[in-house]
Amino acid sequence: MNPEKIVTIVSGLPRSGTSMLMSMLEAGGIPLLVDGVRTADEDNPKGYFEFERVKKIKQDKGWLADAQGKVVKLISQLLLDLPPDFHFRIVFVRRNIDEVLASQKQMLVRRGTYKEDGISDEKMRGLLLSHVDQVLKWLGTQPNIECLCVDYNRILAGGAGEEIARINQFLGGKMNTQAMTAVVDKALYRQRK
To answer: Which CATH architecture group holds 3-182?
Structure first.
């Protein structure tokens, strides 16, 4: 298939390292589809790399033609709304679930929206793990979708070279892997378990 017709997607749970992966793919040579509406902040000092229209993919799929040959970020929940008439390559970021929960909680605290009486961490952990399992199973049944899971924790624990090599192979083998490696910033690995 012509790479210019493929939509590359970075996905995962919120706070799983998808912004870092977007930055890595841009450094590696794939142009991004972003709009800059959501700007960098304390939670993502290097930016979010988002495109607002993806949030309404159920009603608006018109942007997908512009995403061909580029990479765009979608949270895992939105993957279930991908249509069958485009070819997708998804780089799905997996991160230790307790770190995801801690990072989500810290972001809510910073924004003043954290509720102490909300869902327990144990229940939320189960819901998120079940959700990821459901999404990955669905992706595996779609003939127009290829998916590669990458390990955020491994990237930041010294395994960046191996994970980047896997990503490069998955995306056609022509990426600038040195530039991708240079983007990895261990200083931003703040919620560790």
So the answer is: 3-Layer(aba) Sandwich (3.40)
